[in-house]
Design goal:
The protein is built from 18 helices and twelve strands. It is α+β, with helices and mostly antiparallel strands. It has one domain: Cytochrome P450 (Cytochrome p450). The strands form four sheets. The protein has a five-stranded mixed sheet, with helices on both faces. β6 and β7 form a beta hairpin. α6 packs parallel to α18, α7 packs antiparallel against α12 and α10 crosses α12. It binds protoporphyrin IX containing FE. Protoporphyrin IX containing FE (HEM) binds next to α5, α12 and α18. Protoporphyrin IX containing FE binds next to α5, α12 and α18.
Length: 449
Amino acid sequence: MKLPIGLQTPSLLQTLHLIAQPTEFLANCFHRYGDTFTLRALGLNSSPVVFFSSPQAIQDLFTLPAEKFDFAKATHVFQPLMGNHSVILQQGRSHQRQRQLLLPPFHGTRLKAYGQLICQITEEVIAHWKPNTTISIHHYMPDITLQIILRVVFGIEPGERYRRLKELLSSLMEDITTPWYSSLFFFPPLQIDLGAWSPWGHFLRRRQKIDDLIYAEIKQRRVEADDSRQDILTMLMSARDENGQPMTDIELRDQLVSLLLLGYETTAAALTWAFYLIHSSPEVLEKLLQELDKLNGVLVPEVIARLPYLGAVCSETLRIYPIGLICVPRMVKNEPLQVGNYKFDVGTILVPCIYLAHRQKQVYPEPEQFKPERFLENKFSPYEYFPFGGGSRGCTGATFSMYEMKLVLATILSRFRLSLANKKPVRPVRRGITIVPSGNVPMVVTNKF
Ligand code: HEM
């Protein structure tokens, strides 16, 4: 069946282009071909990959039954990092079961329990900031969000294991930022262990060190068997499947690493963009500070979470730079499938494109402008605005990370005044699975009063 028009260049070139310049590449395709186009950009000899961004097509994709798609075929890039049992690689019943386990701890009263901890970790990290110095927001945000996830997901307390895990995970993420290193995950033939100095050999050895620390934590928890703990590891350890069996250590490890890797860089990137965008727009900064100043420095998580302008700032940040750019690609399975005006053959990969959907001019006039007011004046449908994806694969950490973003922003902006040290506009660049502002976002810190 006929595919939507698109690029005819070799799949290797397209994949490298998408890795190296993701936003320019997608925007160019959109300008040339419109809101539905075909690429071959998922590795060597990639199957056709069709990108969608119109609200109607997104609705079709999000509401079609999950059984119509094979999600795991296109997520092989995550396998070496997250393991075979990761929620992101599951399908059907096993996927539903894991989501049922993972969703409750990130919502409702469980979420509220983490509020104080988020503010406290943020205060601890910024306690080192000195007035009239320049700091890099891009370095501080992952430090804050990694500590939050280590304590909320693992329930691991600061100490030697915490320190080593934090160090190894940050350096792994640092390496994944380079296009060369990320290419290793897209091209399985490059995944050869030629010793500790070869790129793949180095990756495997570092992964082993991370796994050893995680298994040591699991072992210790099994011995302690303290059911009163609130963290997600405790909850996963007490879960039982339909045959009454608990998760194995390998299953636990894969879920934990997935939550860590999906949860901390993403929120850190979103916060980095938020600081950059807020401080690039004097009117937004003023309105936000006016709202925050009413708190008089008293940080009550539930009050902060309800501040309307702060909420709009976070939503608009994730509209303009949605961090993930695309949803999990889905491959048509078993029988041809109708989406919009097209019928797709089995094996075609379909991708809801968040980045382009958030730039639809008819939904978002002046889409390149940072205007939080859009979210105060309008309500967008889940097919127009979906920074956390949607349908059966939507992000399980969405509510948690919005909450976290608001608390971290409010804590920092209630303690210090910041300004951009460099007035040059930044560019979106890839960092692992996220996009971040180029150039580390240096900011000058001054006292609030
Ligand atoms: C600003 C922060 C974040 C953004 C922008 C984000 C975005 C996304 C997106 C776009 C997806 C794919 C959804 C789809 O294909 O429909 C996803 C999946 C996922 N995210 Fe997030 N995420 C964020 C934070 C988090 C956090 C904090 C966690 C957990 C600690 C998390 C855990 C997950 C998981 C487990 C999935 C896979 C869900 C599944 O396959 O069923 N994310 N996220």
